[in-house]
Amino acid sequence: MITLSGIVIYNILDYIDPPVTAEGFRYMPTESLFKSTFFSIIIGAVVFITAIRIQRQRQNK
Question: In which band, very low, low, confident or very high, does the pLDDT at 55 lie, cut at 50, 70 and 90?
Fold first, then answer.
């Protein structure tokens, strides 16, 4: 989940603010990589916590 959300977030950030040099060449920005990694870890944690809560509710029934 973390890898998939990291790829999706990176592509969204790349589309919103494309990294282009003064000559018009594209490059891989480290800022977008760090942002996508950070947000994907947060999304992964939220999904994990939500899955644990759902599982506990089902076990109590």
Answer: very high
Give 14 or 47, the one with higher predicted confidence.
47
Phi, psi of 4 (to 5 degrees): -65, -45
In whole angstroms, give the CA distance from residue 23 to residue 33. 22
- Is the Cβ–Cβ distance between 36 and 13 less than 8 Å? yes
**Distance in angstroms (rounded) separating the CA atoms of residues 44 and 32:** 18
Answer left, alpha or beta for residue 18, where phi above 0 means left and psi between -120 and 50 means alpha: beta
pLDDT tens track for 16-43 = 877 777 777 676 677 777 888 888 888 8
**Residue spans per domain, the chain:** 2-60
Tokens of 24: 């018009």
